[in-house]
TrEMBL record, chains A, B:
Pfam families: FAD-oxidase_C, FAD_binding_4. This is D-lactate dehydrogenase (cytochrome). Keywords: FAD, Flavoprotein, Oxidoreductase, Transit peptide. It comes from Rhodoferax fermentans. InterPro entries: FAD-bd_oxidored_4_C, FAD-bd_PCMH, FAD-bd_PCMH-like_sf, FAD-bd_PCMH_sub2, FAD-linked_Oxase-like_C, Oxid_FAD_bind_N, Vanillyl_alc_oxidase_C-sub2. GO terms for molecular function: D-lactate dehydrogenase (cytochrome) activity; D-lactate dehydrogenase (NAD+) activity; FAD binding. PANTHER family: D-LACTATE DEHYDROGENASE, D-LACTATE DEHYDROGENASE, MITOCHONDRIAL-RELATED. The keyword Oxidoreductase applies. The keyword Transit peptide applies. Residues 53-230 form the FAD-binding PCMH-type domain. GO terms for biological process: lactate catabolic process. Its EC number is 1.1.2.4. Belongs to the FAD-binding oxidoreductase/transferase type 4 family.
Amino acid sequence: MNVSLTSEPLRPVVQTRPVPPALIEALSQRFGKQLSLAQVVREQHGRDESSFSVPPPDAVVFAESAQDVSDAVKLAAQYKVPVIPFGAGSSVEGHLLAVQGGISIDVGRMNQVLAIHAEDLTVTVQPGVTRKALNEAVKSTGLFFPIDPGADASIGGMCATRASGTNAVRYGTMRENVLALDVVTASGELIHTGTRAKKSSAGYDLTRLMVGSEGTLGILTEITLKLYPLPEAVMAATCSFASLAEAVNATIQIIQMGVPIARCELLDAVTVRMVNTHSKLSLPESALLLMEFHGSPAGVQEQVETVQAIAAEFGGDTFEWAHTPEERTRLWTARHNAYFAGVQSRPGCKVISTDACVPISRLADALLDSVLETQASGIPYFMVGHVGDGNFHMGYLIDPNSPEERATAEQLNHQLVRRALALGGTCTGEHGVGLHKKGFLLEETGVGAVAMMRAIKTALDPDNILNPGKIFEL
Amino acid sequence: MNVSLTSEPLRPVVQTRPVPPALIEALSQRFGKQLSLAQVVREQHGRDESSFSVPPPDAVVFAESAQDVSDAVKLAAQYKVPVIPFGAGSSVEGHLLAVQGGISIDVGRMNQVLAIHAEDLTVTVQPGVTRKALNEAVKSTGLFFPIDPGADASIGGMCATRASGTNAVRYGTMRENVLALDVVTASGELIHTGTRAKKSSAGYDLTRLMVGSEGTLGILTEITLKLYPLPEAVMAATCSFASLAEAVNATIQIIQMGVPIARCELLDAVTVRMVNTHSKLSLPESALLLMEFHGSPAGVQEQVETVQAIAAEFGGDTFEWAHTPEERTRLWTARHNAYFAGVQSRPGCKVISTDACVPISRLADALLDSVLETQASGIPYFMVGHVGDGNFHMGYLIDPNSPEERATAEQLNHQLVRRALALGGTCTGEHGVGLHKKGFLLEETGVGAVAMMRAIKTALDPDNILNPGKIFEL
């Protein structure tokens, strides 16, 4: 198969469908003040953290219940008008853009933690709950939810993109941590996938089919997640390396040794500088690993000793410890804000974000040349990596008004993805396909797998009203 | 919704489709000696460990490559004749039974370990490799594959049923441990799902859609799995309790405390007796926990101390240690053979196996009454549990010629499943739905979710040739 990646459009194709006044009238009747047609509200729901800009949705419904979602979808289905679920608006891949027009269904008001089953290490939430709000709500139980994308994303959005973050190296991604879902289908019907049991062989895994389906197969209205006991002991440290290569090779060995490290994050020198400026820190401005260890006091001590020995082998400096919970929070908040630190470093820029993930042994091959190519191009960038997972992000900081810069960034992106695929990796570890990686998906999985995805989509959403235009062309 | 479970047939509906001589002729031309029409071969491929007996498939193709599987499916598809993948024949739910006739595709000869990537903790195998053969093949790398259903099942079959076993409490099930698949679809096309990257957000999760689909969506021809470092330290112990309730409640507390126990298995006194007889052991004949601890020496020691303290709280006896690797192997082999120990205890019997799995806090509620009801019924039984996962099996040892015993066992089964569902659990933790749990699946997930499964099946296999009659009615 020979798929040309250069066919990937530099701007998304916008082909809006007409929204009949009768639908707006019916939505208005049903939803009253929960419906907004205001330009500012529509625009707010028609953009995300991606670099694209397209016309906003035709209307926004502020859903307050599964029944609201169901009724909105039923009305839209009558007129074959698109519906786009909206959580926190923090997608970096254009998931929220109304490329075919339609109704944005904002689930932000569905923000209740419905049931904490501490005795089973599970929690059931509405989709608009954010990851920080969830952890606040369960704090008193001694449990926590580890998945932490950079933004304070909604749990619904995190399901939809199969998100992960800094703790995934130990705790897995949304794929491993969602037990059950309530989903409104394309016809407006409410279905249930899964139970609170830890494992099940009861039929097709609809839960995991929905996780990562980016709003194209259903709208999530209730989510049951795994929780974990807060570790008895937590230690966090940074370690500087003279070169990026040494930091990456130390990481590879940490993972290959089977150390159950909880976080293993990499910043290059350029990015450390941006983070220092943004978060008012004074981290040493060279390649930096940020690590966290969870376990019993003795277990954590063992992990630390092993990792210190590996780091020393690769010329790593002495560990700098974040001693108090406050210091740890400061460190990880700075890491989570690396994206915004990058954005701030070039006022007015937009970010094109890469998200390749490769088998751990190929991480140096994938990452180092990609950084060198970027530096050679002259495009400003930041580089952060969930390197324990073999996943890293280049953020190309482009002038949105410069077609040349966009083209250069896309070229870098293509080279990076091709390299990752050749090394047995994936074009997206955690951000999703959205508008921007449709060509990459085809190259990665082949025509047959994408045809199977299309067949599923067509079977479950025959009128293509659920977030159309994302993941693949129909 | 009100679904009557008593509508579950006590015998499967057999409705074979005609297999035209032209298909047999074409298969014979293509496959020569790899095709068998012999009665004994067909019968061997038309039964499994379930209690049902139906006519065998019309022919058996011994596939030796993905191309063989593809060609066999293409020929069968031309004539709309069913194809049933066959691995080790160890299903307990009738997955292999040719209830609509057709061609059994035996992948047992596809038994090569294709690529061991020790540096990435992954391995790629053909579907006919068994779990024991896999572990033999990777032993020299210091890695292992933890998933271990009772039988020496094939990896393909374990994918198809989303199997787990004794290590799942720590290492997860096939759901968590399959990275990528090659699949022959209903049209005979070969597709690829996933890469060797540890995580991905690249489109619909076809890998996990296939895992647990019981041969109804495709036939697996290549499987990439996660491997784990052999733990530095392993300790295994048994602990006896005066009552089943105390053993179960100790288990609940072990899990709730977050102990990363590697195995936590329960046998009741009746079953210990059967195992002692079958495996020539002298385990104390009362409720028994079999446990294993993996980690660093210090980590294992910590786990053992915590669990000993919990066990003592519930009146558990002093731990009996399996000191050597040979003693450990003997203990776990005996546990894996508990099913056969049960069968041997009543010559000529057939087993109806339950497989409920509940949230850990509800395990006592689910398990204890089910054992009492079974004892009251007079039906001989065995009881084993992957209790760390909230999963347990009653094996009703019925006289296959006694409709009364079958009816009583089914009644017990229904009561047990209803109880598990009411407690937030699932009807099947690891065996799959097959022929026998279709009514239970409907009750568990509801009409809407099963309708979605049907829509997917119909989209991907419009002529219903892939293992028809399993999971749900069409």
